[in-house]
């Protein structure tokens, strides 16, 4: 809020850096917590400390600390230093002329509603992307790669740790190298959409990947030699991996290469996050990832094409005003 427009990328980088540090520390902490194992160590009120509950207790503690700091140590007021003006040396005519000029300029220059709509649509697209990555990816990755719960936590932590380092590198380039002044924001957004599009097109279950997702079977046992009858007669204590039997689409859905399967971006779509997980879960249970991937690729393509079409209009209000003043001076 208090930063100048020229320093806005740097300010945003510093603000987002805190969340990114948490993204890096959390997986590292999770990897250490995995040594506790399951069911874990007895704790208060009948609970246990294990790889699933310790992160919850830490989150609750941090939330309490954050709430305390906001209530007692933060007032939310913006303080801007203003230079004193010697009013006795300035005539009223200059004030009236300046005020009239500012009112006239504001009346002629309004914000670009199309650009605002484009930004909102892009935010919705990013919200859909993060919902798919957080709702569909975890269970699907466990089925595709035949992970146990512990392995899923391990690889998810490693993937999140790598993403966190990538984000820190990007933020550092904005804060230290002033990347925001060298690369236009609209170019960065278009580049990000292209990367996300490449991710979803390469992780789509194409038919040439071959084979199919194996159904549930004991870990370490060849799924091709394990039948549904064997599963029904198996001991319930077995650690089963693979696709649930009720997902019929696993018979025709090929797996995805692991290196292409990690998430790339972390974004926020608050409105979408309320409704989308329920709908995506139902679609995933019925059809798998095929239609979800087709939908998100179509949405990303639409968003990217719109950015290219309206590229010249996706500028800040300050740039828009400077162009208007320049055109007015020429005329």
Automatic annotation (TrEMBL):
<dbReference type="GO" id="GO:0005765">
    <property type="term" value="C:lysosomal membrane"/>
</dbReference>
<keyword id="KW-1133">Transmembrane helix</keyword>
<feature type="transmembrane region" description="Helical">
    <location>
        <begin position="53"/>
        <end position="74"/>
    </location>
</feature>
<dbReference type="GO" id="GO:0022857">
    <property type="term" value="F:transmembrane transporter activity"/>
</dbReference>
<keyword id="KW-0472">Membrane</keyword>
<dbReference type="InterPro" id="IPR011701">
    <property type="entry name" value="MFS"/>
</dbReference>
<keyword id="KW-0812">Transmembrane</keyword>
<feature type="transmembrane region" description="Helical">
    <location>
        <begin position="114"/>
        <end position="133"/>
    </location>
</feature>
<feature type="transmembrane region" description="Helical">
    <location>
        <begin position="290"/>
        <end position="311"/>
    </location>
</feature>
<dbReference type="Pfam" id="PF07690">
    <property type="entry name" value="MFS_1"/>
</dbReference>
<feature type="transmembrane region" description="Helical">
    <location>
        <begin position="12"/>
        <end position="33"/>
    </location>
</feature>
<protein>
    <submittedName>
        <fullName>Uncharacterized protein</fullName>
    </submittedName>
</protein>
<dbReference type="InterPro" id="IPR051068">
    <property type="entry name" value="MFS_Domain-Containing_Protein"/>
</dbReference>
<feature type="transmembrane region" description="Helical">
    <location>
        <begin position="153"/>
        <end position="177"/>
    </location>
</feature>
<keyword id="KW-0813">Transport</keyword>
<dbReference type="InterPro" id="IPR036259">
    <property type="entry name" value="MFS_trans_sf"/>
</dbReference>
<feature type="transmembrane region" description="Helical">
    <location>
        <begin position="189"/>
        <end position="209"/>
    </location>
</feature>
<dbReference type="GO" id="GO:0012505">
    <property type="term" value="C:endomembrane system"/>
</dbReference>
């Amino acid at each position: 809020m208090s930063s100048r427009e020229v320093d806005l990328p740097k300010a945003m980088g510093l603000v987002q850096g805190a969340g990114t540090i948490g993204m890096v520390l959390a997986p590292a902490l999770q990897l250490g917590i995995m040594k506790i194992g399951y069911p874990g160590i007895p704790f208060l009120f009948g609970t246990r400390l294990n790889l699933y509950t310790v992160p919850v207790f830490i989150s609750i503690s941090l939330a309490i600390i954050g709430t305390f700091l906001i209530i007692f140590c933060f007032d939310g007021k913006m303080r801007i230093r203003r230079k004193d003006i010697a009013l006795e040396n300035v005539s009223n005519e200059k004030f009236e002329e300046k005020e009239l000029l500012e009112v006239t300029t504001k009346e002629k220059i309004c914000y670009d509603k199309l650009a605002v709509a484009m930004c909102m649509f892009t935010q919705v697209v990013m919200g859909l992307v993060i919902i798919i990555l957080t709702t569909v990816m975890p269970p699907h990755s466990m089925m595709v790669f035949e992970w146990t719960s512990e392995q899923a936590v391990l690889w998810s932590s490693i993937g999140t740790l790598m993403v966190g380092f990538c984000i820190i590198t990007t933020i550092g380039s904005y804060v230290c190298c002033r990347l925001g002044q060298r690369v236009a924001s609209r170019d960065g957004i278009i580049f990000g959409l292209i990367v996300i599009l490449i991710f979803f097109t390469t992780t789509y279950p194409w038919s040439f990947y071959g084979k199919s997702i194996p159904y549930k079977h004991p870990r370490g046992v060849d799924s091709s030699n394990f039948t549904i009858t064997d599963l029904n007669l198996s001991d319930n204590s077995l650690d089963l991996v693979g696709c649930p039997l009720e997902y019929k689409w696993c018979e025709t859905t090929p797996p995805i290469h692991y290196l292409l399967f990690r998430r790339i971006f972390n974004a926020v779509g608050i409105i979408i996050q309320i409704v989308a997980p329920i709908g995506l879960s139902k679609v995933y249970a019925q059809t798998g990832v095929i239609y979800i991937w087709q939908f998100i690729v179509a949405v990303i393509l639409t968003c990217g094409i719109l950015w290219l079409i309206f590229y010249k209009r996706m500028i800040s209000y300050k740039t828009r005003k400077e162009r208007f003043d320049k055109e007015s001076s020429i005329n």
